[in-house]
Specification:
The protein has about 250 residues and is an alpha/beta fold. The chain has helices spanning about 10-20, 35, 55-65, 80-90, 100-120, 125-130, 180-190, 195-205, 215-225, and strands spanning about 1-5, 25-30, 45-50, 70-75, 95, 155, 160, 165-170, 170-175, 195, 235, 240-245. The protein has 9 helices and 12 strands. The two termini are about 35 Å apart. The chain binds calcium ion.
């Protein structure tokens, strides 16, 4: 899946592009509305509303005049009114900064799933739109989904289901906060492999995370407690964490 990332702030755009490519998405990055409108739009557009050369809302409106490509707005705090206008102008969703990589991937999946099912049953307005000069019909049924497995992961006594955002140990549901679940799901993607603190902070918290990292240790401690055995999560001091199945839960 190809992503057009329209974001002028390199400190946001770079970690975002890096994170998206880790999920197997190919990212085309532009920093201005003018470059964005030159296209191509790819399979999904991520649009920062605060651009240097033009209003992000106008970029949204002008893309929508020629394309059905899904658009997710990336908005800053205090842009609530813009979000509403953006949605009226045809954006499919928005995400308020700061957001985590996992929230963004979840939105991308939801929006592409929705637009795909719409594309399978095109309405007359959509068909009329497809006739506009330069129109690009997007969201075709054959497009690959964001390659994140939806099957529940089974690791010994532990089951992690990213679709329902639930986890069980030995058949018992584990009550987790959203961050605790994201942390567990990330570690469960590649059991046994070390996941670096930097990656966890970028994906579970914010691609632009530069604050104190103590919060990560607090969440790991809570997660260990809730899983009922500290042996589930091994620490590599100063490096990161890995998920292993403790002998008692094999
Ligand atoms: Ca900006």
């Amino acid at each position: 899946m190809r992503v057009l990332l329209i974001e002028d702030d390199a400190t946001i755009a770079e970690p975002l592009a890096e994170g998206l490519s880790r999920y197997g998405l190919s990212v085309e990055r532009v920093a201005t509305g003018g470059d964005a409108l030159a296209g191509p739009f790819g399979d999904i557009v991520l649009l920062d509303l605060g651009l240097p050369d033009m209003d992000g809302i106008d970029v949204c409106r002008r893309i929508r005049q020629v394309s059905h490509v899904p658009i997710i707005m990336l908005t800053a705090r205090g842009e609530e009114a813009d979000r509403v206008v953006g949605l009226e102008m045809g954006a499919d969703d928005y995400l308020a900064k700061p957001f985590s990589m996992r929230e963004l991937i979840a939105r991308i999946r939801a929006v592409t799933r929705r637009t795909r099912s719409t594309a399978a049953h095109p309405d007359p307005a959509a068909l009329a739109g497809a006739g506009l000069p330069g129109a690009v019909r997007s969201g075709s049924v054959a497009q690959p989904d964001v390659p994140v497995s939806e099957e529940p992961r089974r690791l010994g006594a532990l089951v992690v289901d990213v679709r329902t955002r639930q986890a069980w140990v030995g058949g018992a549901l584990v009550e987790l906060t959203p961050k605790e679940f994201d942390l567990l799901a990330l570690l469960a993607e590649d059991p046994g492999a070390v996941c670096s603190r930097r990656r966890i902070l970028a994906e579970v918290w914010d691609p632009h995370f530069h604050g104190p990292t103590k919060t990560l240790d607090v969440h790991v401690a809570a997660l260990r407690r809730k899983l009922g055995d500290p042996g589930w999560i091994r620490t590599l001091r100063g490096v990161g964490f890995r998920l292993v199945v403790p002998a008692a839960h094999d």
